[in-house]
Amino acid sequence: MKRRFAAMAAAGAAAALVLTGCAGGGGGDNGDQPWTVAEDVTIEGSATFEAMQSAGQIVIGVKEDQPGLGYLDAATGERTGFDVDIARWMAAELGFGEDQIEFKAIPSANREQELVNGNIDMYVGTYSITDSRKEQIDFAGPYAITGQGLLVAADNDSINGPDDLAGTNVCSATGSTPIQNIRENYPEAKIQEFDTYSQCVAKIEDGSADAVTTDALILLGYAAQSPDTLKTVGDTFSEEIYGIGVPKGDDAFRDFLNTALEEGGETWTAIWDANLGETGVEGEQPAVDRY
Amino acid sequence: MGVITDNWDLWVDATVGTLQIFFFGLIIALVLGFIVGAMRVSPIPIARWVGTAYVNLVRNTPLTLMFFVFAFAVPVVFEIRDLRLLGILAIGLYTATYVAETLRSGINTVPVGQAEAARAVGMSFTQVMGHIVLPQAARSVIPPMMSVIIAFLKNTTVAAGFSIMNLGSIRAYLSERGENAMVVLLWVALVFVVMVFALSGVQRYLEKKWRVAR
């Protein structure tokens, strides 16, 4: 009964998030960041950068429901996570401090459109580099590599990898690449789809879903948040390469970000340790791909 | 056109999903709406109160919240795990309130004197409704009822966020497959235009069939 009540409370909290639309303010303590805000930055021939400078701010698309990666604390309005800190770092390299960043939470399915429309200057949020996406936008980076993994209840011993999924309920974000992969390659699994991973995690907690699948990094964040009830299992069974989404064709802007990533190895490690170090997974910065 | 032909499986699944929610949801909405509408005009006070309470409670609730309650709270309390069934229940119960109110407005178009005359010659409540009021009410109710049904058809897309594959899910899928989201949405809109045209056809047919000289 206690668990049932907890699940109800979780559903209620998730409902509150959905219904309020999650208006969020900036935040973040300006104590000991591993980066410093650059001054007098110029980027020759970058329309994106010019627009940012004349606006006096940078608009960055992020996730806000992924603990450890891109998360908005609804109570304090503070954004935390690996991706968010990478975004802050890149903004700092471009000469924008915390008070000049406008974070915008954008669901996965809208990312390309928001970049194409120019509503955001860049997107940092578990954004996998794919060829089809490159037709609409460009990627700086990669800044992280992961793969599809599985998250199950801590007391679930029957699922140890994707081959154990037959007949189980597998949950992920609507239409996301991981769930399309399951639909195609593991057709015996039953599919559940919701707008956010948090809703899938709520489904595990109330017993309706058996596993949540998406990039292992995202799942690690949830497991780290509630180690008593959730765990990740098995090896990753795909490769996802996270990049920073930028408007298509602005090569000067992309080169600038790539250089910043290449020269900032220590900053990268510091950001990883601060956000995901507790999971015990050793982070390694991937080499930048200047295509 | 490649958006459709390259992803044929998805469009078929999604259209079937939409029609499934529409068909089963419509049955719930019409049957329940008819009952609740009858309750609201019934001579029994309790039935009127229950009908009024149901309509006012559910009609004043956002559809997304209805889905949310059915997808996340109902499974915990009632142990129903089938998300497709839960979604159909959510939208069916929601639409039933509109059906009920539309029916009631139709009933109100029949002059009270006719019902009183029918009672005076000894008809029961069921006979008054069945023989005198409803046949006339049905005619005047067709256009607004079709509007309710069309709105319901379009409302089914909300189910995409609650684990029921339908035309509303397509954008998320194809955006992951690298298609332009705006183009995809235009195609989805076109499919809906076609389906709504079909419903308008049904409306024209019924209006013609039941037309009376007044």
Automatic annotation (TrEMBL), chain B:
Gene3D superfamilies: MetI-like (1.10.3720.10). Pfam families: BPD_transp_1. It is a multi-pass membrane protein. Residues 15-203 form the ABC transmembrane type-1 domain. InterPro entries: AA_ABC_transptr_permease_3TM (IPR010065), ArtM/GltK/GlnP/TcyL/YhdX-like (IPR043429), MetI-like (IPR000515), MetI-like_sf (IPR035906). GO terms for cellular component: ATP-binding cassette (ABC) transporter complex. GO terms for molecular function: transmembrane transporter activity. Keywords: Amino-acid transport, Cell membrane, Membrane, Transmembrane, Transmembrane helix, Transport. The chain crosses the membrane at residues 20-41, 53-77, 83-100, 145-164, 184-206. Its main location: membrane. The keyword Cell membrane applies. It is found in: Cell membrane. One of its GO terms (biological process) is amino acid transport. The keyword Oxidoreductase does not apply. PANTHER family: AMINO-ACID ABC TRANSPORTER PERMEASE PROTEIN YHDX-RELATED, MEMBRANE COMPONENT OF AMINO ACID ABC TRANSPORTER. Belongs to the binding-protein-dependent transport system permease family. HisMQ subfamily. This is Amino acid ABC transporter, permease protein. It comes from Agrococcus casei LMG 22410. The lineage of its organism: Bacteria, Bacillati, Actinomycetota, Actinomycetes, Micrococcales.
